[in-house]
Write the structure tokens for this entry.
Amino acid sequence: MATGTPSVSAPVIPFTGWNRLESRPRQQQFDQVLEARIYDPLWMLGRQWQMGEFTGKDAGSGILAKVQLDYMQISGIAKYTQPPVSYTQDDLPMEPIVERINYSFSIKERVLLAKKWYFFLKKDVAPSLVNTYISLFNSSPATLEIDTTPPIATSSDLDTLNGAQIFSNTNLVNFLAAISISGVNLDGAILYSVLNDPAWNTNLGSLFGTSLPAGSGTDLLTAVSDFVAWVKSTYTLPDVSQENWYPDDLEYKFDAYWPVDTSNQLKLTAQNYHQGHFDWSAFEQDINTFPIASSAAKVTKAIQLMVGQTGFPGMPCSRWWEFENGAINFCNLDGNPTDMAKIIMTQFALLYQDDWFVLPYTVPVGSYAEVLGIVVTDVFGVNTFVANYPVNNYSYTTGFSEDNDWKSWRWLDISKADTLSSTADPINTHSPAGSFPLLPVVSNIQESDPIESVLFIRDEVSDMVWGIEKIVPDNLGKGWDGYQRSKLYGDYLMQLRGSLPESPNPPDPNAKISFELISTTIPENWIPFIPIHLPLTNRYTHFQRGAMPRILDKYANSLIRPVTSILNYGLTGTTYTPYYIHEEKIPRAGAILETYFKRTRWYNGQTVLWVGRKKITGRGEGASGLTYDKVIDI
């Protein structure tokens, strides 16, 4: 016998075994395979016994379920961190309450409001007093203050700049000509603001500085009430203190309240809403600093119903001979080894699709519901209690609830604010886990073409942000191209006075260079935002609205101001308020902020119209090409 160590070790072949049988066709035709023939039934039964398939298990399918659920009806909506205002979903959906902004009426709408006021006067007031009231209300302060006389070359700079706002728009000029023919000189927007003042009901005549005609009273108050109600119902205008738009965040912020009992209410807050449609995912439960009493309380309801199996399009059938839907081909899934999420989700859908059931439980719109528990009765008559999953945080060792939020995977669940705890806020000891708000919102909203559109871009070269007014109001209730408006405005100013002649002192022909103080012309619809430090900090910044100078021949220099209500925040009236935007609200990709007319129909058949805003992601960085002092080689 030879001894010694072999030079090459023999390979070790692992043992491989299978514990299930699968069909393995060896022919091109699959007819016999699909027939699933059984040649030896006794062998098949013996094999099943060998594999333990006859071992009894308590695996009955659910057939009945008894569900107990608590729900609360929404009771109020509030401006962020402000006391709530009573709200009933039968009146309006939540979107008009949350999204509505104080709309600046166009000139055309001001005239239409005035005509509507004439309609209510003729409807509610005695015929002998109609003309008297029309003459009274046509006086100040409700006069349509629009100078229909175009400026001339000798007009002052201020009159010329203001007049060009109107007369550079041909369509607006034609509309004003039609107004002068009809004889309407009443500003319906000013009239609405006056009549909407509570002082109107107590001191009628002092608003106009004159006494009312004899016999006036109830009939006039009826016309006023009808007119104000019509404007509010048509435009769904908010009170000034209830507007939920925050200009510095470019987003909506608001709170919603549900009654826990007759003494306290539960608060859900939304701080980053700008998508144009919101649902439960926009909320988180926060501390309620306004424990206001409510007339309603939570409702507890238990029902028993049959269990239904959950399905989805293309789900594999559980029965062997059942034909499956061929609309979805799972065999065509292209999953790479790194697509772990796709692989896991596909395996979960194909292997465990029979393990999910649905219980149709009806709750009212506007409710905040929590499932307290489910008792499932299977086909064997065994009752199984299924608790709300936050109960799993209970520790049988220590006997109290543990904070295992980091261990749990949750879906369709309301988050908790960082400041919310049972010790800091005894009112909100109710955990949001396992609760779900069925919000009174609509799924289909009609939107007009944008009446305002502003593109925010980051200009890293000039180290600033530009707010580009791509669409501006045309004072006729629609949007107007911002570039076209700025060009027509500048052309009108230049045509009115012309340009200066050539400089009487031409440059020295022997000069080698030319120096220009401002060498770039920025369109008037580009509004600059300058980064500045927050007070008492040297790191955190936000953007402050600035102004480019308007430098025209034969005009004194003036500042270019924004036209849209998105950017002219703080510029209306006689006072000036600086406007800041938080830096993180304008990402590197930029942002597009647009204003729309929105319209929908509520479940009671009411048609609702309001003006709201929506923000979407921008299109990347931009560059204005702005340069200041520049030396040119001539």
Q: What stands out?
A: The radius of gyration is 36 Å. Confidence is low (pLDDT under 50) at residues 1-6, 392-402, 422-429.
